[in-house]
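Regression test case RT-17, inverse folding.

Input:
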């Protein structure tokens, strides 16, 4: 197993890593709308979703992967009524390549954010 770390995404806020590579698969930790400097991005769910994707792109790049190699995404949202707004932003990042996905509404997320996304991706050989 290889631990993944980049300064281009927020550091883990607990005893875990930004992601782990096992064989040729990258497993990201859930990304929330923290900026790389650790400051929380305030804003609506669309703005928070864009920040989450910025973080995912950074950890994927460090792992030797990309959004194009994501095979599974799990989306955790605070309010299912905002699903269409989140889906619109999500579609900007996964338009042609559409990995498998689960989306669940949760009671609460770290730092009371509106969205968290984790991914599994193939690492480019």
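Golden output:
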């Amino acid at each position: 197993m290889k631990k993944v770390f980049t300064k281009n995404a927020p550091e883990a806020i607990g005893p875990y890593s930004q992601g782990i590579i096992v064989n040729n698969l990258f497993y990201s930790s859930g990304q929330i709308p923290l900026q790389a400097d650790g400051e929380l991005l305030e804003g609506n769910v669309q703005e928070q979703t864009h920040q989450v994707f910025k973080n995912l792109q950074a950890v994927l790049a460090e792992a030797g992967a990309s959004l194009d190699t994501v095979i599974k995404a799990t989306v955790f949202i605070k309010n299912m009524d905002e699903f269409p707004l989140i889906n619109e932003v999500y579609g900007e990042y996964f338009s042609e390549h559409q990995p498998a996905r689960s989306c669940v509404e949760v009671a609460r997320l770290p730092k009371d954010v509106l969205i968290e996304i984790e991914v599994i991706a193939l690492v480019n050989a």
